[in-house]
Amino acid sequence: MKLLQNIAKNPQEDKFRKINGTNAKIQSTLFALSQTDQLLSLMGFVEIEPKVFVLLDLDMNFLSRSIKAVDSSLDPIRM
Q1: Residue 71 contacts by C-beta under 8 Å, 6 or more apart in sequence?
Q2: Residue 71: is its pLDDT beyond 90?
């Protein structure tokens, strides 16, 4: 969630629009979930290298809806 929120807060910052799934922390959290690759693709991310995704076309309305959808789907896990 923090990754997506950072993009929303800093949409023009390239460093926030890239998700490096080879990073140990990101690999053990975000990429530990099944179908993360597909979810990122549906949100508009493009895989530029294995497990490295970048958001090329930023649609803030779609990103906001995606953040809300991901957040609500994580609610059962948080409890």
Answers
A1: 1
A2: no
pLDDT of 75 reads: 63
Q: Give me the sheet containing 18-20, strands edge to edge.
A: 18-20, 52-55, 45-49
Q: What is the pLDDT of residues 17-49, one digit of tens each?
A: 999 999 999 988 888 888 889 989 988 899 999
The pair phi, psi for residue 23, each rounded to 5°, is -65, 135
> Between the CA of residue 45 and those of 59, 75, 77, what are the distances in Å?
11, 23, 24
Contact yes or no for 79/17 (Cβ under 8 A): no
pTM of the model: 0.79
Q: What share of the chain is helix, strand, coil (3-state, %, to 5)?
A: 55, 15, 30
Q: Exposed/middle/buried for 45, CB within 10 Å: 0-12, 13-18, 19+?
A: buried
